[in-house]
């Protein structure tokens, strides 16, 4: 059989692409080796940029983000035991929305089902073939065994690798450059059953290290603290976790977290990664398959959605006969990727501490934070980056 676009990976990037293509009259098949249950219960990011919300709503994928998402006008940077608010609305006229990635996934999967989209979860033995030949005009094939054990071999005009940071499709990009950076930090992430402690996000730098106070619902909260990449979650009792978090947000203002039972604990490693180019022949990469950012600044999911918005536009041009469309995608997407790489790196290094930090390092970072929050231009720059950049237009 055949399809216009074979999509490897049915997470938010793959599903959003499939949805946008369907609206443009382009057919696709999306496959994922993970099952629906696994993807929908893997806790990931929580913050959507303004344009990510617009994309979900305007494309008809999801209205729930408007009723159940929580719009935030800003964030708080906390250091020296004080809050320093960054008012996005006032500084750049934009907001962000707290809406978990798991909900984005569920909404997109529902929209694909509603519209008769072809999405296969829990496939096995999936591969793509003939990618090298596609530079000579051949077509790639996407092969997989579906959840019922039936074998498929689908000829595609284009294959999109949206298969996440451990991407298999990426291995087909011959001559690729992999740009990589590791960090001596990780996050200890928890979900807890407690009322919210604050109505926006708090990014805190303290002598004991980083902490991020986020939310999920009225009754469930999401929090993280900086830890070593080889931290053992089982060494952390609820009491020990709460003490660590409380210490990292404590200050003269008496701010305290609302505590409750901890229902999930995970350690999240940090890395920065970009694969260039994001295209080889008739294969293009999107989302984490092409780039990973450390989580500070909440760029990962937003970057993936921004990729597929541009990719859907360029695939429309491709199927209208524009030969440069796939290259144009790679170039337009990459321009945003490097801005996000810098911003995520900057937020991360400014807010985290390691045992090796000298007192000089520590005070220099506090100087950086002071300088940032005391400057309206500094705050506005952070607000611009955090709420998201406009796309470079087509052509
Ligand atoms: C969340 C995650 C992030 O990486 C971030 O910067 C802000 C919030 C979250 O899971 O809520």
TrEMBL record:
Molecular function terms, GO-annotated: FAD binding; monooxygenase activity
Keyword annotations of the record: Monooxygenase, Oxidoreductase
FAD-binding domain boundaries: 2-343
Domain of life: Bacteria
Entry protein name: 4-hydroxybenzoate 3-monooxygenase
Species this chain originates from: Nocardioides mangrovicus
């Amino acid at each position: 059989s055949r399809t216009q676009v074979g999509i490897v990976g049915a997470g938010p990037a793959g599903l959003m692409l499939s949805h946008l293509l369907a609206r443009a009259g382009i057919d696709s098949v999306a496959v994922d080796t993970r099952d629906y249950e696994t993807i929908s219960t893997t806790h990931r990011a929580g913050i959507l940029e303004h344009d990510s919300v617009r994309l979900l709503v305007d494309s008809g994928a999801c209205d729930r983000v408007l009723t159940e998402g929580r719009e935030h006008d800003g964030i708080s940077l906390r250091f020296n035991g004080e809050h320093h608010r960054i008012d996005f609305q006032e500084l750049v006229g934009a907001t962000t929305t707290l809406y978990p990635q798991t909900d984005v996934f569920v909404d997109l999967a529902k929209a694909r089902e509603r519209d008769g989209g072809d999405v296969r979860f829990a496939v096995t033995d999936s591969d793509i073939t003939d990618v090298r030949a596609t530079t000579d005009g051949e077509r790639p094939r996407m092969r997989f065994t579906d959840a019922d054990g039936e074998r498929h071999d689908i000829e595609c005009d284009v294959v999109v690798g949206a298969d996440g940071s451990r991407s298999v499709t990426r291995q087909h990009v011959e001559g690729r450059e992999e740009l990589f950076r590791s960090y001596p930090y990780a996050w200890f992430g928890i979900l807890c059953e407690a009322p919210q402690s604050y109505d926006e996000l708090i990014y805190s730098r303290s002598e004991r290290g980083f902490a991020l106070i986020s939310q999920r619902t009225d009754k469930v909260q999401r929090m993280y603290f900086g830890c070593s990449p080889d931290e053992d979650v089982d060494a952390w009792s609820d009491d020990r976790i709460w003490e660590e978090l409380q210490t990292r947000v404590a200050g003269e203002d008496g701010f305290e977290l609302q505590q409750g039972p901890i229902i999930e604990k995970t350690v999240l490693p940090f890395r920065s990664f970009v694969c260039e180019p994001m295209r080889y022949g008739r294969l293009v990469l999107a989302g984490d398959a092409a780039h990973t950012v450390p989580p500070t600044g909440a760029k990962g999911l937003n970057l993936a959605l921004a990729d597929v918005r541009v990719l859907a536009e360029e695939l429309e041009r491709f199927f209208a006969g524009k030969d440069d469309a796939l290259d144009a995608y790679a170039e337009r997407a990459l321009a945003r990727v490097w801005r996000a790489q810098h911003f995520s790196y900057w937020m991360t290094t400014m807010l985290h501490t390691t045992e090796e930090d000298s007192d000089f390092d520590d005070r220099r970072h506090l100087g950086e934070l002071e300088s940032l929050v005391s400057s309206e231009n500094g705050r506005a720059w952070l607000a611009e980056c955090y709420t998201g950049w406009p796309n470079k237009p087509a052509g």
